[in-house]
Every structure is written in structure tokens, then in C-alpha cells.
Here is the input.
Amino acid sequence: MSWDRAVVKQAIADALPLYVPAIPFALIIGLAVVDSGMNHFVGWSSAWLIFGGAAQLTVISLLGAGTALIAAITAGLVVNARHVMYSAAVAPAFQGQPRWMQWIGPYVLIDQLFALSSLRLDNDPKTFRTYYLAAGATFWTLWQTSVAAGLFIGPVIPDSWSLEFAVPILFIGLIVIGVDRFPKLVAALAGAGVTYLFAGLPNRAGLLVGAAVGVLAGTIAERLR
Amino acid sequence: MTALVAIAVVGLGTYMSRAVFILALANRRIPDPILVALQFVAPAVLSALVVALLINEDGSVGIGLPELSAFAVGALVAYRTRNHIYTLAAGMGVFWVFRALI
Here is the structure.
């Protein structure tokens, strides 16, 4: 297969600026791995096994905080459930792709690649494939490297900085940027409020109650509009 | 070992959520009620996580003035700049200042 160099270059040029905001996530994931006490290689493996910052951070910080395995897994899966929407949105462009592309493509379908590739759904199949894979490989390589960098920086940073608090702050940033309509604000407030009310449940299971009620509250708010 | 299991299971689930329509259901549409609910998953679960991460061993929630101020400033900076680096710097900065003062 021959690569169209211009397309590859364009993909990399588009991917790089979109990657910058992900750098603090990668570094904090590395710090969270160090903080959680889990094997560093296992923690780093999340970068290529999950390849999704919010879910990685969720699973690692919850396990590090002593959350039950099932609750941590469920939370991680729920955080990444939004990818179902991406999958549906880009699926038409994968119809004409070879089977191997249909298997590999989903692996790198992160938020940033969804944003980039959804602008090119009408490209011819080969151009789409080249662009998608080049941008995906760029994000993937940068992500593996920066999470590893976080692992090396982690032990150097003193505990007194309480950098574990960076995790909820990063999530606040994701929430604020993602909440563009009133029903989403309702979902966010209900999720936080109900988790607070159920904080006494063992193994932080209140998290799952809060998330479920939040989704329900958002759906109801949408209906009432 | 349990950490690896959790990571691998979430990894598999993540792949499946990204692959479902590309590999299996390319000609189907997501039913509207599910599409509506899906958009609330991220805000609901992320805000639930913010609280859950601050739960102490005894079931109390460790949210005091430093945390609330950091969240408020972080949210404001995220809203104005849409930039995670600024958000992180502002939030941690406020957190450190308040913690030093109290």
C-alpha cells in the first residue's frame, strides 16, 4: 500500500495541536500510577490496553484509593461509554474499508481522532484510511511516551504537593468544557450531589448510584424542555 | 495483578464501545432514547468521580474550603480558556494557597 505523503503530513499537522491539552492528563496518569502503589509497568500498560485518558485515570486513581475491583471496572467502562456515539458517527466511512481497517480503526478512536476524522467522512476510502491511521498513530505514540514520562516524573514530586488533587481538577475541566446545554448541567450536578449523599456506601459504590441518577436526571431534564 | 485485570477488562470494554458500530452494526442507528441518555454519561459520571475521589476511609467527603475554591476557580478558568493546562495550574495554585493559609 502506498501512502499519500501529503495526507500523512496533514494528519500529523492536525493531530499535534490537538494533542497538547492531553499532556497534563498523561503526566497525571503517570503520577497516579506511582501514587497508587501498583506495578509501574502494569499502570503504564493502561496507555495501550485502554488508550483513553479519562478511563485510565478513573481506574488507576480508584484502585489506588482502595475502591473495590468491580466498582473501579464499572466506573472505567461507564466513563468510556461515550465512544459508542463516536463509533456510530464514523461507521459510514468504515463501510468501504478493508476488514483489517475495521478492526484496527476502533482501537485508536479517541476523542481527538473522532473530532478530526468526523470532518473527513466524505473523503475517498483510501484518503480517509491514510489520514485516520496517520493521525491515530501520532496520538498513540505521543500518548505512550507521555504516560511513561509521567511515571518518571512521579517519584520526583514531593507528596506535600498533593498532586492527587490534580485528578478531580482535570475532571472538573472536562465537565465544564463538555457541558454545553442545561440538561448536561443537571446531569453533572445530580451526579455529584447523589454521590455525596451516598458517600457512606462501601467501596465508593455511591459513585455508581450518582452516575446512574445523573444520566437519568439529564434525560428527564431533556424531556421537560 | 488485580490492577492488571481491571485495566485489561476496561481496555476490552473500551475497544468494544469504539468498535460496535464500525464492526457489527454499521447499518443500524442508535435508538433515539439511548442516544439522548448517552450524552449525559460523561457529565454525570465525571462529576460523580470528582466527589468519589474525595471520599475518606470513614465515608466522609473531604471537601473543604481549599477544595471548593480550587474547583470554582478551575471551573471558571476551564470555561473561559477551554485549556486543561491553565485549568490545572489555576486549580492547584488556589488549592495550595488556601491550604497554606488555613
Summary: The CA atoms of residues 12 and 135 of chain A lie 6 Å apart. Residues 125-153 of chain A form the longest helix (29 residues). The two ends of chain A are 51 Å apart (CA to CA).
